[in-house]
């Protein structure tokens, strides 16, 4: 393939992927606790047979794992008992659809029909001994350290469990297909007693709408430029073929 065509096609693919990531960020601008994805890639130069770098050879862009914007979102007061926000750094442990431990800052919690504590997306919240289940109660309160206290239908105040809260190294995590963070090696992070919650509040998404729209426009214009280059090369090729034929 002609180097110009190869580079144009590769560049168009990169721009399309950038638009996809940006669109996903914008779609989650109102998702509590959402952390924006950052497109990561590097340009690689083709080498010759001796391993040396070509001066005028092909180059291509290699996509790397997406980065994650770990900046906190704005904390919004809701007054709802089962809404919690992380105060400062930290994450809440949940169970993903594969049964593995994962982490989120989305603290809009609910009880399912079986009394299991779940997130807004239906992921079970993890406690000291696994997923947390809460029996019928008059009231439920979540403390700043994640301790869950209930007033049963019969009886007095009872401490039930504690939400598992952890600290994560931003260089050692990846975001899975469900939008949850996991450790790169697949293990579980230890509980951290220093992480604190704000009860009756939610952390908003950290997506910057203006920045994402600028990224979308920039990627779109670059994509159009690559497609125009393909069209131009095709036109020149046809004209050259016509001249040679004459």
Structure description:
The chain is of the alpha+beta class. The chain has 2 domains: 3-70 and 207-245, no CATH class; 75-203, no CATH class. The protein contains 2 helices and 20 strands. The chain has helices at residues 3-27, 209-245; strands at residues 37-38, 41-45, 59-63, 67-68, 75-77, 84-87, 91-95, 101-104, 110-111, 117-118, 124-127, 130-131, 137-142, 147-152, 158-162, 165-166, 173-175, 181-183, 196-199, 201-203. The strands form 8 sheets. Strands 7, 8, 11, 12 and 16 form a 5-stranded antiparallel β-sheet that branches. A hairpin with a 5-residue loop joins strand 7 and strand 8 (101-104). Helix 1 runs antiparallel to helix 2. It is elongated. The model has no long low-confidence stretch (mean pLDDT 85).
Task: Provide the β-strand percentage band.
Answer: 25-35%
Elements, N to C (H/E): HEEEEEEEEEEEEEEEEEEEEH
What is the general shape?
elongated
Unreliable stretches covering 5 or more consecutive residues: none
Structure keywords:
29% strand; three-stranded antiparallel beta sheet; 25% helix; five-stranded antiparallel beta sheet; 246 residues; 2 helices; alpha+beta; 20 strands; elongated
Quick overview:
This protein has helices spanning 3-27, 209-245; strands at residues 37-38, 41-45, 59-63, 67-68, 75-77, 84-87, 91-95, 101-104, 110-111, 117-118, 124-127, 130-131, 137-142, 147-152, 158-162, 165-166, 173-175, 181-183, 196-199, 201-203.
Map the helices and strands.
Elements: H1 3-27, E1 37-38, E2 41-45, E3 59-63, E4 67-68, E5 75-77, E6 84-87, E7 91-95, E8 101-104, E9 110-111, E10 117-118, E11 124-127, E12 130-131, E13 137-142, E14 147-152, E15 158-162, E16 165-166, E17 173-175, E18 181-183, E19 196-199, E20 201-203, H2 209-245
Antiparallel strand pairs: 1-4, 2-3, 5-20, 6-19, 7-8, 7-11, 7-16, 9-10, 11-12, 13-14, 14-15, 17-18
């Amino acid at each position: 393939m002609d180097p110009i065509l190869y580079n144009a096609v590769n560049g168009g693919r990169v721009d399309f992927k950038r638009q996809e990531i940006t669109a996903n960020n914008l779609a989650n601008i109102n998702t509590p606790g959402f952390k924006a994805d950052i497109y990561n890639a590097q340009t690689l130069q083709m080498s010759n047979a001796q391993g040396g770098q070509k001066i005028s050879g092909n180059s291509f862009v290699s996509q790397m794992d997406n980065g994650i914007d770990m900046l906190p979102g704005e904390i919004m007061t809701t007054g709802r008992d089962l809404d919690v926000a992380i105060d400062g750094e930290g994450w809440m442990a949940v169970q993903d659809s594969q049964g593995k431990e994962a982490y989120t800052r989305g603290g809009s919690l609910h009880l399912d029909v079986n009394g299991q504590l779940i997130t807004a997306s239906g992921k079970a919240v993890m406690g000291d001994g696994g997923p947390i289940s809460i029996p019928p109660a008059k009231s439920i309160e979540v403390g700043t350290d994640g301790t869950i206290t209930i007033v049963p239908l019969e009886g007095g105040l009872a401490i039930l469990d504690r939400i598992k809260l952890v600290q994560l190294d931003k260089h050692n995590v990846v975001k899975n297909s469900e939008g949850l963070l996991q450790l790169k090696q697949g293990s579980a992070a230890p509980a951290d007693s220093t992480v604190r919650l704000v009860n009756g509040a939610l952390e908003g998404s950290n997506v910057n709408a203006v920045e994402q729209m600028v990224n979308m426009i920039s990627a779109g214009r670059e994509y159009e430029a690559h497609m125009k280059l393909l069209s131009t090369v095709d036109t020149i090729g046809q004209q050259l073929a016509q001249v040679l034929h004459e």
